[in-house]
Amino acid sequence: MALRILDDLRISLTNMREIADEQRGQVIVSAVMSVAHTSLARMVARYRTDRQGVEVHIREGLHGTVLEDVRSGIADLGITYIDEVHPALDCIPLGSEALHVVLPVGHPLAGQRGIPFIKLRGLQLVSLPRESRIRRIADLAATSAGFSLMHSVSVTQFATLIQFVLAGVGIAIVPGGALPEALSAGLAARPIVQPSISRELGVITLRNRSLAPAASSFLDLIRQQWPASERKRGKGKRS
Question: According to the CATH classification, is domain 2-96+200-233 in 3.30.70.3400?
Answer without folding.
Answer: no
